[in-house]
Amino acid sequence: MNIYLIGYRCTGKTSVSTEIGRRLGWPVLDADMELVQEQGRSIADIVAADGWSTFRAMEKTVLKRISAMERRVVATGGGVILDPENVAEMKKSGIIVLLKARPDTIYQRLTGDRNTGQFRPALTNQSQYDEIVSTLSTRQPLYEAAMDFCVETDTLTIAEVCDRIMDGIKEKMKVTKVKSELK
Question: What is the pTM of this model?
Answer without folding.
Answer: 0.89
